[in-house]
Amino acid sequence: MFDEKLLNPFIATTWIWGAMILGLTLSPLVSQLYDINTSSWSYSPNKPINWPPIELAIAISQVSLGGVFYLIIMLKLIIHKKSNHIDTSYKNEIRLLIAIIITIYVALGNAYWNFLYNYVYDPHLAGFIGNMILIIQNGMNPFLYLTMSKHADIWIYNSYFNVTCAHGQVQVLNCITDKGTQITIGTDEFWEDGMRYSCRNQSTMPEKDPEPEGSGFENTHFAEECDRGEPVYVREHFMISCEKHEVIGCIDAYGDVVKIGYFVAERNRLKYCYVYPNGRKARIENKGCFNGSRDDDPEDKSLHITKYKIWQQGNFDLRCGDDGISIYKCYIGTTNKTVHTGTAWFDEHDVLNVCK
């Protein structure tokens, strides 16, 4: 919501405002009278300022504004996730919701001590309710620790990185294998289930998303298709209008055009296309592989395969890699023995077989 230059003055202002209220409360203008027998307090009626209504107005206005800002921040986070297609859990929103609930509770507590207690006819019950409000309010520390916990700011990015937000940037904490094993940054080689992983040169994520495939535009002045009078041309899966100089959409392996949504490129590579409303900007995100046919809907997430996943299909172990779906291993006959792609062998009938 705030960048670092605005956040520090904002925090300083809140401390200054709180110090002013504290100073006014302790000044001769406002005196609090404490009753030890009832463990309660009141205000001296002989002071020049009628403090209770002022205190109520300040408390309710501050808490209400705080609740409004919490709601704005939460909505901003949700809109940011949806507009940038970030598929993560809503931990930050849940923490803000807890903060909003605490804010409303504090506002009700202030309202009770200032005038709501007058509607409780039994003074002992009124004091009991008021003290319970304070006890519960003081017991909210664990929930405040939850909302402020740094560990709650850790999330998984792009399926293979544990990241957190620090100093205004998204920073990588470690890498993750397909089985969830965490790999320390700086590891050049780590093997698990026959797969080689590395976690190096990734100490900090960029401030913005990595430059997507084929992002940006080619000047249509140099597009031969436009010079030949054709209405559109295609570059890096983007279909672009020669007349309007806008991106029409993303073109899949079958020639179909998608403006927003999943589509399938060559070798069953799964991608996500998003064309911004003005058409002057678009992006393509790599989403792994698509284990379906042309007749299947690319939006069907049951057919989505995460990158580097290995699974058995018929007599083959298939693997989703950078180049799409490829054969990883072959099964020999009806046995469970497998050989890697590129391996040749003779079967019991002296027939040469090649895994490819």
Automatic annotation (TrEMBL):
Keywords assigned: Membrane, Transmembrane, Transmembrane helix
Keyword Membrane found: yes
Transmembrane intervals: 12-34, 54-73, 94-113, 125-146
Keyword Transmembrane: yes
The name this protein goes by in its record: Uncharacterized protein
Provenance organism: Acrobeloides nanus
Organism placement in taxonomy: Eukaryota, Metazoa, Ecdysozoa, Nematoda, Chromadorea
